[in-house]
Amino acid sequence: MRITGRTRIMFILGDPVDHIVGTDILNRFFAGNGFDVAVSPLQIARGDLADALSMLRRTGNVAGFGVTIPHKIAAVSLVDDLTEAARDIGAVNFVRRNGDGTLTGHNVDGAGFIGGLDRHGFAPSGARALVVGAGGVGRAIAFALARAGAARLVIANRTVSAADDLAAAVNAAVPELQAEPVSTDALPPLGEFDLVVNATALGMKPEDPMPFDPAGLSPQTTVAEVVMSPAETRVLLAAKAKDCRIVPGAAMMAGQPALVAKFLGF
Fold first, then answer.
1. Which of 14, 217, 241, 252 could form an S-S bond across to 68 if both were Cys, CB 3.0 to 4.6 Å?
2. How big is the CA angle at 181 (ends 148 and 250), to the nearest 5 degrees?
3. 12, 238 contact by CB (below 8 A)
4. Residues of 111-120 as b/e, b for ≥16 C-beta within 10 angstroms?
């Protein structure tokens, strides 16, 4: 990669950042398509996000930046404008720095997730889906599945109020589907679902507990991850042992670079 004063700079803001592989995916896409753009992780603590965005507003060669754990929801109130997707979802995963220094938040997680399912041969229309996790990425996936025609959507979260809030937002946006909020301590039988999604950060570290007990999975269930590193989490390995189709976390990111390039105007 040749970086000069003409190179547009991007970051992915998160904390921690050692799990981030999206920067490599973006850099490969930009280089392969002739875009003079360089992307790097930037570790920003929760309490420093507002200051970081203030700095980026004043940095003229920054084209924009990605937003990952734990900042996707917090960024909503810190940018100047939101696309319809980000406003509906209530979470941001990419931000465009406009010429006047203002920031526009967008979310391509949902579109990326549905694209990943499609590339792995799973069609969400008419499916019964369980999404475990109601944070930023869980919100994007829940909305995307609802709009893709899922027949049933259960949203599970350790803090049930977050599942309640997300289910209410999905039901308001897609009233023909009544999403069901539950606690992760009271999941329905996993065999009832065509698709089970880990939309939590559990799985990044070897010592992490399982987001759900895979013992109840059936071979007819597709299991999808959002964790990209490691490439095969304990959940995916357990699902493979059950002869389930698996969709790794990297699948959600694979289609996002083209969406990001369009959003940023490259």
1. 14
2. 50
3. no
4. bbbbbbbeee
Beta-sheet strand order (sheet of 8-14)? 37-43, 8-14, 62-67, 94-97, 103-106, 81-82
- The one-letter amino acid code at 22 reads G
Mean pLDDT taken over the chain: 96
Give per-residue pLDDT as tens, 223-249: 999 999 899 999 999 999 999 999 999
Q: Which of 72, 205, 242, 262 is labelled catalytic?
A: 72
Q: Are 3 and 38 in contact (CB under 8 A)?
A: yes
Closest CA to 258 of 79, 115, 121, 67: 115
Helix ranges restricted to H, the chain: 22-32, 49-57, 84-89, 109-119, 136-147, 160-173, 234-241, 250-254, 256-264
Residue 100, CA distances (Å) to 13, 62, 63, 84, 157 in order: 21, 12, 12, 21, 39
Enter the tokens of residue 245: 């189709």
48, 16, 251: which is closest to 141 by C-alpha?
251
Sign of CA dihedral 4, 14, 129, 152: negative
Spatial separation of the C-alpha atoms in residues 41 and 243, rounded to whole Å: 36
Annotated active-site residue 240? The verdict is no
Separation between Cα atoms, residue 37 and residue 182, nearest integer Å: 43
The number of beta carbons lying within 10 Å of the beta carbon of residue 162 is 18
Q: How many residues does the chain have?
A: 266
- Strands of 222-225's sheet, edge to edge? 180-183, 152-157, 128-132, 195-198, 222-225, 245-247
Tens digit of each residue's pLDDT (9 = 90 or more) over 34-55: 999 999 999 999 999 999 999 9
